[in-house]
Amino acid sequence: MSISMLMCRLRQPLINVPCSGKKLSMRQIQKEKVVLVMGATGTGKSKLSIDLATCFPSEIINSDKIQIYDGLDIVTNKISKEEQRGIPHHLLGTQNPNTDFTAGDFSDCSTAAIDAITSRDHLPIIAGGSNSYLEALIDDDDYKFRSRYDFCCLWVDVAMPVLDSYVAARVDQMLRSGMVEELRPFFNANGDYSRGIRRAIGVPEFDEYFRREGFADEETRKLLLERAVREMKVNTCKLARRQLGKIQRLRNVKRWEIHRVDATPVFWKRGEEADEAWRKVVAEPSAMIVAQFLYKAKSDVNVVSGGFRVPAGSTESVMAAATC
């Protein structure tokens, strides 16, 4: 059976309940499905969520605690409208940048978004690197989430030395794309970077640069800029390690079932070769994992959509690229 035949069947049809003679929706007795895409910064979580959403009827909920704020699109590496490819996104750039959006706020808003998405027979895909948000949502004190939803976790992983190089190159690209001018309005003369979007990596690192650029000579400004960029790279790599540690804690201590997909080979390549590697080692294995989660798929399933295809009968070879 082809997944394309099941694209709009995220829920089962109505069934008869003999004891009452009434029809009862399977939604009332089966949990809704939710997919989580996790990973350290820079690993391709947004890209994978878009790939999955083109394969299954889905909407995406952002779980990055900085991208949730309006502003700093370059610094926070927000996915652009073009990159979103028409897929609806929730909690992306929606919050006042001067306020704090807590884990509790995220739980409330994401739950409301999940309910709205499932009411449209779509699959909610939660994507982002803020694992404290995800933990607050899923392991809530009242067990509300787990009582209502089944969830599938995908972890896009990249070897740290490889990711460090990529992160450094990405910061350089941010600089070329106008990062300094984007950051300038967020400079705080009082030095308070503890609230809202000003906690973003890049804002505090450029504090000294903005304080001194007006009266420093050209050589000093250059050194200040280089120092700020260097600190951004170091702190982003530190963030990636903290995120990785939290994922490992959720997996090994809290015993979450998390499917690890190793994207490292993609980052060794460039251009079309990188695109092909992504399809083979990340997109297709992840789509198969989600298909099995949604439809209890077997080895004769085809995943056909969004420009890639998993051949029937290839489940074992495809799944070998993912480590559960």
From TrEMBL:
Class of the enzyme per the UniProt entry, highest EC level: transferase
Catalytic reactions on record: dimethylallyl diphosphate + ADP = N(6)-(dimethylallyl)adenosine 5'-diphosphate + diphosphate; dimethylallyl diphosphate + ATP = N(6)-(dimethylallyl)adenosine 5'-triphosphate + diphosphate
Alphabetical list of Pfam families matching this protein: IPPT (PF01715)
Gene that specifies this protein: IPT3
Organism this protein belongs to: Lotus japonicus
One CC-aspect GO term: mitochondrion
The protein's role, per its UniProt record: Involved in cytokinin biosynthesis. Catalyzes the transfer of an isopentenyl group from dimethylallyl diphosphate (DMAPP) to ATP and ADP.
Any single biological process term in GO: tRNA modification
Highest rank taxon of the organism: Eukaryota
Enzyme Commission number(s) from the entry: 2.5.1.112
Name of the protein in its database record: adenylate dimethylallyltransferase (ADP/ATP-dependent)
InterPro entries, A to Z: Dimethylallyltransferase, P-loop_NTPase
Keywords in alphabetical order: ATP-binding, Cytokinin biosynthesis, Nucleotide-binding, Transferase, Transit peptide
Lineage: Eukaryota, Viridiplantae, Streptophyta, Embryophyta, Tracheophyta
GO molecular function: AMP dimethylallyltransferase activity; ATP binding; ATP/ADP dimethylallyltransferase activity; tRNA dimethylallyltransferase activity
Similarity comment: Belongs to the IPP transferase family.
